[in-house]
Input
Amino acid sequence: MRDEREMLELIVGVARKDDRIRAVYMNGSRTNRKIGRDIFQDYDIVYVVRENRPFYEDTGWIDVFGERLYMQRPDEVDRCNGLDVDFDRCYGWLMQFRDGNRLDLHVVPIGEANVQDDRLCVILLDKDGILPEIPEPSDEDYRIRKPTQREFRACCNEFWWGLNNVAKGLWREEIPYVHRMFYEGSHSQLMKMLNWKVGYETDFRVSTGKASRFLKDYLDDEVWNRFLETYIGGSMADIWKSVFVMCDLFSDVARELAERRGHEYDAEEAEAARAFLSHVRTLPRDAASVF
Output
């Protein structure tokens, strides 16, 4: 497996030799000094080019980066899914190589290059001085933000209301629907609440990473193990169990932040939503009315 030095020399070397490429910058986890290196870290690279079209019309040039196991062209996928994508503003290749390395490479025209929007950006090459000076990389933009009372209230409301959809999906035994409503609704709000808990305990100076992947590092074992139990399985019984574990955990953390951090928690709303959930759990499949 090629090491970081070899990969960066290759990436920059390709750019130096190609007159169409005027600058190179990198962002992502490899520029974040707070994240340890591991074998799965990819290289998030942007080539600033004169024009995108020659690069995406004849893609044989990417073979220079090594033998690929497989790859994806995300912009092509987005366009196939009906999204409005402009290849001439940004185009990319996500490449998994046979030696284990992964390169997420994008090309953008000079007018679209903006290294100031991402604090985890590092300039690797600038042939013409077209990129502005930027500070040392920092994860500041990705740190947990202190919630306002309005945000806290909205999180709680969305959590409890989302369970209405989960409940009716479970009664109907519509498992695919339940999974979607569960994870996109209430469970995502639990994640938000747990991040706020971490934020308060660290003076909002940390990031738990993409998809909260470092959340375990900041929660005690008891809370973390309860959190793991909120992930649902395929059977009705397992799902109902995880739902109520999630309710208990969310309620405990929300009450903690209300009591210790000055937020207002609508206990009446929570109790009503949980009572409805419990009622639906015992509602016969042939019921003619919800109540």
